[in-house]
């Protein structure tokens, strides 16, 4: 993961069926908590409750309630998406293609 003091760019989520989305967390993002979870916090079990999703390559029904612009679902931000819903969406789409994918083009 690429990290700075404000935002963590997570790897693209690319699923086995080709579905793709970006997930972001941190200060200024629609995520909970608002701070970047440190490696130590992560090792002690702290996790994000909600994340910000976007840059979908196909509409995803489960994300629609979180869309900031319900008329433009492929170009909107999905705010405060429950992290466990992201896990469910990954399963719906056949699982992760590769967990070592580039960080949203921001290596």
Task: Write a structural description.
The protein has helices at 39-43, 83-92; strands at residues 2-3, 7-9, 13-14, 20-26, 50-54, 78-82. The chain has 107 residues and is an alpha+beta fold. Strands 1, 2, 3, 4, 5 and 6 form a six-stranded antiparallel beta sheet that branches. The radius of gyration is 13 Å and the shape is globular. It starts with a strand and ends in a 15-residue tail after the last helix.
List its traits:
6-stranded antiparallel beta sheet; disordered C terminus; 2 helices; single chain; globular; 107 residues; alpha+beta
Give the beta-strand count: 6
- Averaging pLDDT over every residue, what do you get? 85
Sheet having the most strands: 6 strands, antiparallel
Helical region count? 2
Strand content: 15-25%
Summarize the helix and strand pattern as letters.
EEEEHEEH
| Class from secondary-structure proportions | alpha+beta
Radius of gyration: 13 Å
Can you tell me the residue ranges where pLDDT is under 50 for at least 5 consecutive residues? 100-107
| Structural shape | globular
- Helical content, roughly? 10-25%
First-to-last CA distance: 9 Å
